[in-house]
UniProtKB/TrEMBL annotation:
Protein's GO biological process: carbohydrate metabolic process
Family named by the database record: Belongs to the PC-esterase family. CASD1 subfamily.
PANTHER family per UniProt: N-ACETYLNEURAMINATE 9-O-ACETYLTRANSFERASE
Domain NXPE C-terminal: 22-72
EC category: transferase
Name of the featured protein: N-acetylneuraminate (7)9-O-acetyltransferase
Domain of life: Eukaryota
Subcellular location: Golgi apparatus membrane
Keywords on record: Acyltransferase, Glycoprotein, Golgi apparatus, Membrane, Transferase, Transmembrane, Transmembrane helix
A GO CC annotation given for this chain: Golgi membrane
Species in which this protein is naturally found: Dicaeum eximium
Record-annotated membrane-spanning stretches: 269-291, 325-343, 355-375, 396-417, 452-468, 474-494, 506-526, 561-579, 600-617, 659-679, 685-709, 730-750
Length: 756
């Protein structure tokens, strides 16, 4: 791993993903929009100096600022461009040869008589080859001229960004007769001279002319599509312009998915405090562990001096105190969080852009499905949506979602729509599971609420601190947290209606239905009243949790996208438990859920519904329109799947232990992927082993799954310590947690103030 400046990689190396997507070596390139380009280049002056090839690059560059620009300038003359709204000036200066005229123009900027441009892009050679018929004398003169210009460019490079564009190869078979002397051999000789001479006299790293050599690599792949064998096709020019924009703008705009040329972000105050805390935890655990082990060894075997017999101690295993267990958890968590930080905040490991192909998504899907079927076992119970079955469901859905993310399949609308159903199915299980627990157990105690909230949010809170990200960034956890609190409030508010009470009087069932209707009404109202929703979540302290980029629009969008599915899960649980109570379904091993006729009819309807939804989702043409329908229709495929999975007794009696294992750590997998499997906050892919994509995915996946499993264990261990069953102790812990979040808010406010 060379490390170093990713700008050098961006300017000099890379490869094509497919036909048009350029992937720089080791870093990610951001695709700049017009508004972003204007924000970056506001009040800037950019100059392109050279021949017709540089003119092409000039036009591609200004089209990033204003796509409406047409290539109508004078062919062999200067072309000005100005965007008055952002005070941006971009000029093309026609100097097709490296000669005295070009030198005089560059010298005028160094003498201070004319304002220096902020960005200077220079390049020329083909005209010298053409005019002088490729003679060696012309090459010798080129070397003399570039030697005289080099010190001036290096002087400008102290305060401006100066780029020398190397000459692209030509497609010799397509060149016209007047250009036949322009050969790739000659071009290589001119490029070699430019590289050797530029920066040869400069010892100051700030005064270096940046050599733009990546254009050669791009041209090697695309020059065959050239119209005349000399000039690059438009797509290649646009790629070069985007690279140029990334080199200059990434350090200014700091886009998440543009890791090239971005410096490592400085540690925040909260990150420094977290680092100190984890360091102290590691040392504390080591000290206590050594003391305990030493004491244990002393007491392990004691010899009776009189009889010569060995006596066994009363305690055969070392005692682990609560403090030692707590420090042990934080010790492991500290090491894991260090790995998180190194992967996605430090510039230690490489990152690459995603690139979708059908094979990169569907082949892994087939592979994991075969593995899942291979690990089939009998369930301990045969109830509908039993524990093993729900774990299996979560597991295969999570694996499909992971493959969806790493393959960049969100660009393929049919896959996107099906993945939206999987996310909805998670929320459906949230409604089903929590409703079933409260309805059957009737346990509305603080202990249960704190346990659920801790298990859901612990990892995300730690990541918000270590990775310097807002809570809403990990959108799924806020979503399930809020829905859990809504379910709790709906059922816990007076009158508390639970199964035990409803069994004594059927009218209570109607009371519960009224509660559910009230919940549905509130959901419907908020979904069509964005202003009210945003006002509710814009109040402090909710705003600190749900704002992203200064507003709660993202939170409203995420909530609205699956607004009805939790209600559907609650309603399904109520109907299922009522049918189960009245013995209207058969859940024996191998028995169909209903009578044979009813089971066959329902199974047929379910299969047709499942396929109908898939056909509709696959025929989607517009993501916005399909997202509008999704909240109302996603439940169709979810219910169809549940019935297909549970109506046949033999299907209900088995499960995949492979998928169930992943299902038990599905939440950790979903969150951890942000930083240690994907990269740049899910926008790219983490590269631990460059040059071997498949091997890299295998290694990073193994580490990622192990880390997710370990974090799940840590969360479970800490939940027992932090959330005790004793109410008085729990109250003290809650006060400590309140103090922790108050301190976190205080330091966060200090941090924001120092940034501004």
């Amino acid at each position: 791993f060379k490390g170093g400046d990713t700008c050098e990689y961006l300017l000099s190396s890379g490869r094509f993903l497919g036909e048009k997507v350029w992937q720089p070596h080791s870093c990610m390139m951001h695709k700049y929009k017009n508004s972003e380009a204007k924000d970056c280049l506001i009040d800037k002056h950019v100059v392109f100096i050279g021949d017709s090839r540089i003119r092409q690059l000039f036009y591609s560059f200004i089209k990033l600022i204003n796509p409406q620009v047409k290539e109508e300038g004078i062919k062999h003359g200067n072309i000005p461009f100005e965007d008055k709204s952002a005070s941006i000036k971009v000029d093309f200066l026609w100097y097709p040869e490296v000669n005295g005229s070009m030198r005089q123009r560059i010298k005028s900027w160094t003498e201070g008589f004319v304002a220096k441009p902020h960005i200077i892009v220079v390049g020329a050679a083909t005209w010298s080859i053409k005019i002088h018929n490729g003679s060696n004398e012309a090459l010798a003169q080129y070397k003399i001229n570039i030697t005289s210009i080099a010190p001036l460019l290096e002087k400008l490079a102290i305060s401006s960004d100066v780029y020398w564009v190397l000459q692209d190869p030509v497609y010799e078979d397509m060149l016209s007769e007047s250009r036949k002397m322009i050969t790739n051999e000659k071009i290589d000789a001119y490029n070699e001279a430019a590289v050797r001479i530029l920066n040869s006299s400069s010892r100051n790293s700030k005064a270096k002319v940046k050599v733009f050599s990546v254009s050669k690599l791009i041209a090697q792949e695309t020059i065959m599509k050239s119209a005349d064998g000399l000039h690059l096709p438009e797509s290649s020019r646009d790629t070069n312009a985007m690279i140029l924009m990334n080199v200059y703008c990434n350090k200014i705009m700091k886009p998440i998915d543009g890791s090239c040329c971005q410096p490592q972000p400085p540690l925040t105050l909260i990150q420094k405090i977290a680092f100190c805390f984890f360091t102290l935890s590691i040392f504390g655990y080591l000290i206590i562990s050594l003391i305990h082990r030493n004491n244990y060894r002393k007491n392990k075997s004691c010899t009776d001096l009189e009889s010569g017999e060995e006596k066994k101690p009363a305690i055969s295993t070392p005692y682990i105190s609560t403090l030692e267990m707590l420090l042990h958890c934080f010790c492991k968590l500290g090491l894991i969080m260090t790995y998180f930080y190194l992967c996605d905040r430090a510039n230690l490991f490489m990152k690459e852009n995603k690139f979708y192909t059908h094979s990169s998504f569907f082949i892994p899907i087939v592979y994991i499905l075969v593995l899942g079927v291979f690990y089939t076992e009998n369930t301990k119970e045969t109830k509908v949506l039993n524990r093993e079955q729900t774990d299996e469901w979560k597991g295969w859905m999570q694996l499909v979602i992971l493959i969806y993310h790493i393959s960049g399949a969100s660009t393929f609308l049919p896959v996107y729509m099906h993945i939206r159903v999987l996310v909805a199915a998670y929320l459906f299980q949230t409604g089903y599971g929590h409703f079933s627990y409260f309805w059957i157990k009737g346990d509305f105690g603080v202990y249960r609420v704190c346990q659920v909230l801790f298990r859901l949010n612990f990892l995300v809170v730690v990541l918000c601190i270590v990775m310097d990200r807002p809570y809403q960034f990990y959108y799924f956890v806020p979503l399930v947290t809020v829905w859990f609190m809504i379910i709790y409030a709906t059922l816990a508010v007076w009158p508390q209606i639970v199964q035990k009470k409803a069994n004594g009087n059927c009218l209570w069932h109607f009371g519960l239905l009224l509660k559910l209707i009230g919940l549905l009404t509130c959901i419907y109202f908020l979904s069509y009243s964005q202003g009210t929703f945003e006002k509710i979540f814009s109040f402090w302290p909710l705003s600190t949790c749900f704002e992203l980029n200064g507003n709660v629009y993202e939170w409203w969008f995420r909530w609205k996208l699956d607004r009805y599915v939790v209600f559907h899960g609650m309603l399904f649980a109520f109907i299922y438990l009522a049918l189960q109570k009245h013995q209207m379904i058969s859940e024996g091993k191998g028995d169909p859920l209903f009578s044979n006729r009813v089971s066959n009819v329902l199974l047929f309807i379910s299969i047709v519904s499942f396929l109908t939804y898939s056909i509709w989702a696959s025929s989607c043409k517009n993501k916005t329109e399909c997202n509008e329908l999704h909240p109302s229709v996603s439940v169709v495929q979810i219910l169809a799947f549940i019935l297909i999975r549970n109506i046949p007794g033999y299907v209900r009696s088995v499960y995949s232990s492979f998928f169930a294992w992943f299902g038990k750590i599905s939440l950790e997998l979903f969150i951890c992927q942000y930083h240690i499997w994907l990269a740049a906050d899910t926008k790219g892919i983490l590269v631990l082993i460059p040059g071997y994509p498949m091997f890299n995915v295998l290694v990073s996946t193994f580490i990622f799954v192990c880390v997710a499993h370990e974090i799940s264990q840590i969360t479970n261990d800490l939940a027992q310590i932090v959330v005790p069953k004793d109410n008085s102790t729990l109250l003290k812990r809650l006060l400590c947690i309140a103090g922790f979040f108050s301190g976190l808010h205080f330091f966060s406010a200090m941090q924001d103030q120092s940034r501004h």
